Amino acid sequence: MGNLKVHNEECENGVVYFELEGLLDAHNFETLEALFEKHFEGGVYHFVVDISRLTYVSSAGAGVFIGAVGTCQDNEGNIVLVQPSQEVKEILELLGVYQIFPVVNDRAEAMEAISREVI
Amino acid sequence: MNTETVRHKILVPADASKLCELRESLSQLCDQYEVSPKVTRRMVLAIDEALANIIEHAQLKEGAEEIELCLEVMEDRIVAEIADRGIPFDPSPRFTEPNPRLYPRRGFGLYLIHMIADSITYERTPEGRNILTLTMMLT
User: Fold this and answer.
1) Which residues of chain B have pLDDT under 70?
2) Would an 8 Å CB–CB cutoff place A96 in contact with chain B?
3) Is the distance from CB of B104 to CB of B43 less than 8 angstroms?
4) Helices (H), A12-106
5) Where are the domains of chain B?
6) Which fold has domain B6-137?
7) B16 in contact with A, Cβ within 8 Å
8) pLDDT of residue B101
């Protein structure tokens, strides 16, 4: 799908790491939604998502994160966000949902944070 | 900022895959008029949301698929008029207070538009056009 690149990696302790690059909008949000759904079907509810290179999120894209974090937290999991850009942070703040995500500065810190929740 | 009002008219295809190019064009246009990055980001987001809603929900018929975007850049504000020939819609936001645990996965677009725009008007014309007008102050 154009304008969005997703690197998807299964890590130890049942944690999945996504690295997103580009734009997440009304045209391509279903790509990310399908990826989350695939992992939910496999019983994975712990995610680290690096969005430092995601430069734009529309409401459709934000909705994927909001829906996914709800599913994760309902299943004792979570989504840790790594380094949201100012643009993405602003949109999540406008929607009033930024505070529901643990946010950290790098992958190592994120893996440590999510591992505490897995155990 | 130039004190003269400038009006730009853009015909937008009803195709979500083209929204990326439009956002880029709108950002460049705002740069040209020295609109601040924050206002530019928000204005582009609000217009993107409005267009995405039309593309997804307006049920545009063949031959009436283009959406007309008129952008007026004034000294103190930007006015975006978005017109389409789809079915009428209610421009009220679906949410009044953010509550993350109650949110469904979709339907945040109008809420974001209301958060961003300083004023919003909606008109359904006798000719069957929806006209959504968003005004954003520059200061």
Assistant:
1) 1-3, 94-105
2) yes
3) no
4) 29-41, 59-74, 86-94
5) 6-137
6) Heat Shock Protein 90 (3.30.565)
7) yes
8) 63
**Amino acid symbol at B87:** I
- CA of B47 vs chain A CAs: smallest distance (Å): 11
Give burial (CB, 10 Å; 0-12/13-18/19+) of B99.
Answer: exposed
Stated length of chain B: 139
This model's pTM is above 0.95? no
Distance of CA B83 to the CA centre of its chain: 10
Long-range contacts, A37-45 (Cβ 8 Å, 24+): A40/A71, A43/A14, A44/A10, A44/A14, A44/A15, A44/A16, A44/A77, A45/A71, A45/A72, A45/A75, A45/A76, A45/A77, A45/A78
Q: What class is the A4-110 domain? A: alpha beta
Q: For an interface test with B, which of A27, A89, A100 has the most B Cβ atoms less than 10 Å from its Cβ?
A: A27
ipTM of the complex: 0.87
Q: A25 touching B, CB under 8 A? A: yes
The structural domains of chain A, with segments of one domain joined by +, span 4-110
Low-confidence spans in chain A with pLDDT less than 70: 1-2, 118-119
Looking up tokens 């949110």 gives B103
The 3-state DSSP class for residue A5 equals strand
DSSP bridge pairs for B96: none
Cα B121 from Cα B36, distance rounded (Å): 24
